[in-house]
């Protein structure tokens, strides 16, 4: 591989050519036809020779030397209509605004295309749409903005990975996340940390550095990424320098955040009332404690304290939260000339979570430079480095999860008389962790690339790039001796992860127009290799909490180092042919070889075909002036999913220690034929624009059939293995997507609306009979004929009015109480939404602008596992949700809450009792800004300035009774979607910000 | 410049890129080794034997469940379960369903250990004949026999319930799994009697092959002691007595001076078989492991198993098993009248599976049940040996089996034998008769789903 690199650099150096003579100078000024304001950054070029060009400076002025043969100048500026003018010494231009949004250029794999000519389905979100919003990681910018992209933040924990699914769920046991490609390089997006809940390595990417995000959704768009494209591809393009006056942009915002909901639990009086009742009705009454004596019962079965007779009233759930906050500084410098352009940025983002002990900060820097060595040869580099530091909180399923404090009875106090935190609580008082424990995850990451492009002619070019993605993750935990996990002597843990990946792309591009024919060809080769090394150690026995490094530990009780890796060798090609500006056909393909595939199936081929018909170019439509654009498109192709683990095809032995002796045991049974999962993706789309594109949009139907699903196929354990990975399953995702953008008002008062709605219907078609159950507490299940993760379990039938027994449905439809119930389980819900989407409105008037973006999910079910403990009519001493007060009594017989019977488990096992509708509508962000008029600014030597106030998650409408309907307790495993277990809610954040441009 | 020259270079680079990297597609795992090279030498096989012990020491088996589950099934008049784990709570309440996580993982790991044993036996001929080969073979048999025994008594109706040739035990798999086809093969449940026959055959092999001494691992006497348990469970008192007497007479083991020593010290003079643990490698410190569930000490244990005061009172005031092996909770759920066993108080302590005092009590019980003459020693002497060591009042004459059974409860409390003893002497626990299907673990739902030839136990679906 070293040789390859060497040759690669050699290529870069040798691609030097001669400059040619220029002999005519043109100057001029470009202004906006709408308001006469100068337009900076307008591209000015000679028609037919795009390599000769310049850009306007901040005042709209340009200067360009052209060959004497030049006849026509072309002026291009995004958002404005392109204009062509004859060459003369002075050319002043007024550019008209263009509402024809469809003419925008979108980034696709290994190149760009005009949106108009696309035959694939691509969603695009640009920096403009998420500017000024305090998003903690760039993926959240897609939420509610990109049709077909479902995002669930999972929880309000900072630094935690999100769930992103493009067009449904395409896999059962292989990866479900899209492939992330940043500036042409596939990057590591999987969690690297050791905590139960995933961290998010993408949080190190500063949203401010991003120019656009494209999501490749169908085969036509994505199959050029072959075996890694089944879950969609997210292309991130960072900002690049623009020629012209050097511009400095400074942005700052700061704000506060609070939980969207704090929960509703019993206070002490209510708690005593409920448990007095529960004690009386228990079968242990008079056995486990003196008859009807709740105080005695608490002594016997409670925390072993006399709290029952005290008057403490602690609102534990409030103690889990703190006032959060966010501040961010970012400065970027952007400029250059015709030869060299640069973009430099640096920023610092500091967030304090709403959960106690949770915080995140990021420092980031970037240098993007491109340089034209000659009119034929261009080189460039994108270098970024970011450091993040995350004070993490425990997994949802840990006593140390701050939200589990709500399980502690309100009759207990948080601090003892001496002011020290109480260690007498029913469950661990994890406030102790806040004082005596830390869990820090720091990451240093650089995603950088070097690229070169050589134009053999105006039609043919070769591009090469070499990218690095290097991440160093450092986890350091310390738990003092007073903490649950650190007792009795203190516990220190440290782990280092080194993930390094490098990637090369070399490809030829050919772009040719002749007569009515347009041809666009790309073909090349790519190689990527990634290695992951970890090292960790654990120590116990610390002198005191001032010593937290393993060096101070009396016993180094554990240590480990691991290494793994994978590689891909790929060949790809794409061709598009357009005839007469109306008819487009396209084809693409990729051959992917990977170390992950079994020895009998090393290489896979992933082709696609597509076609488009721009109906609006047909004469019979052209005459209808109201229709500005109409295109039908269709695509079909194959993609693969290679996120199958690094060595799934091998039969392996691993070490297993036995006290101080090393043992080995069989750890995996393999299959030589093992390969990628295969998705056959079909897409029909309609793009439209009416009334000069004031109304525009897209409509898509997709049908993705995924085959050869890698199933961790359950084996009869009697042979020593519980599962084997095989290509056996099939599933499908079908759905519709609709995006509508309207410019409702275009005068001085501007109002535009964007709306998108998507559906996906997921169905598991075949699993070779195997069924995957989510676990003993969870309801998620995967079984043939049902949606991924549908809820399956005992169905709750309410309360018997006669005696207060919890009832469950038997197989024959009759009902029975806990002890007589026949154990029949059935479908009790579906965590997949019926539809989801977003709705945004932008208003502007003079210097004011207002952007309101909302997001909705409808028809999904949620299961609150914590119901077992907190909404279970006083089965044990956990504090209960307030709705439990409506329990059955001889006088309150019509209720859904069974009679409280302490420790008798009346309706206390897993059932649909805690399944709820999870639909919600959320006002995700509101930004109100004011652009300070330029006449004020010019005196201050400021080009532009804007102040704004912004709110995130301001309002949520839902019937869900838990903390937050946008929930996914990831620790429960991937089968269990829509599960909630003391999962923290999202933050509601209000920020104030300023932007200055110099 | 010379465009042609440049083109050639670029073309060369491109072609180089296209052909050079194929070998880069070979990545070898670093933490694991390929099965084809895993078991080649005696040392490899020795490692696999150690691996099998490690599996047995895990939380699913002796590390937690093979102790805790039989205790929970018989918790009535004994202790209260306070834990939050639904799976254990279901067992304590006898409301298990087929998804019970403990029933699943114990089943899975017992068969995992059995497969390692089978794999050792399948590869054992790679070692030349001799003491090492015999020892490793014997250990494999010991592991396999012990696991089948644990399985059959948890997942089948008790031997004492009769109908042993029709009541279902567990599947018997004696073939090493080497490929995906073997890994998928289905096996039906064998009868209780068939499984016991297999257990006895395996343990007899172990007795023959393992030497008298085999530090920190199973010895000939570990196998004999286990065999004694098996016979006792079958009500075969003659054979149980012979095995127990053989252990007492020939093992060179002796009761420790104090009741706590077998638990506090590793591999004490009383130990017949124990799981080795240390601070790094143990069954668990927060969600698994005996100390985790039994203990309530500063920073140790969840205090999930609290001894009933009435049970504590079964010990005389002078009994060291009361004063030294029962303490008031000082950690989780602390309280002066909340009692916990002192047998399992440290995460890194070894886990005693069989110890000598059980052999004395077995011999005493069998001697009483069988016609004279006594083998070894009189029941009274055996009984008093155990009593005297504990500081409890000895008996002048032990004439009733019940006396021995009562002593067994006191001596072996919290060591995982309670429900098995109740079942073999046909005594109910709470309202559940000894042969109640509610006292039998379900065949795990995942197993029924994966293996259509399995029949679920009565009372589960």
From TrEMBL, chain A:
Subcellular location per the Swiss-Prot or TrEMBL entry: Cell outer membrane
UniProt KW keywords: Cell outer membrane, Membrane, Signal, Transmembrane, Transmembrane beta strand, Transport
Stored Gene3D superfamilies: Carboxypeptidase-like, regulatory domain, TonB-dependent receptor, beta-barrel domain, TonB-dependent receptor, plug domain
UniProt-listed Pfam families: CarbopepD_reg_2, Plug
Similarity field: Belongs to the TonB-dependent receptor family.
Domain of life where this protein originates: Bacteria
Residues of the signal peptide: 1-21
Protein name: SusC/RagA family TonB-linked outer membrane protein
GO CC terms in record: cell outer membrane
Main location: membrane
TonB-dependent receptor plug domain span: 115-233
Source species: Pedobacter psychrophilus
Recorded topology in the membrane: Multi-pass membrane protein
Xref: InterPro entries: Beta-barrel_TonB_sf (IPR036942), CarboxyPept-like_regulatory (IPR008969), Plug_dom (IPR012910), Plug_dom_sf (IPR037066), TonB-dep_OMP_SusC/RagA (IPR023996), TonB-dep_OMP_SusC/RagA_CS (IPR023997), TonB-dep_rcpt-like (IPR039426)
From TrEMBL, chain B:
Span of domain SusD-like N-terminal: 39-232
Gene Ontology annotations for the cellular component aspect, listed alphabetically: cell outer membrane
Keywords carried by this UniProt record: Cell outer membrane, Membrane, Signal
Segments forming domain RagB/SusD: 349-431
Compartmental location: Cell outer membrane
InterPro entries: SusD-like_N (IPR033985), SusD_RagB_dom (IPR012944), TPR-like_helical_dom_sf (IPR011990)
Record family assignment: Belongs to the SusD family.
Protein's name in the database: Glycan metabolism protein
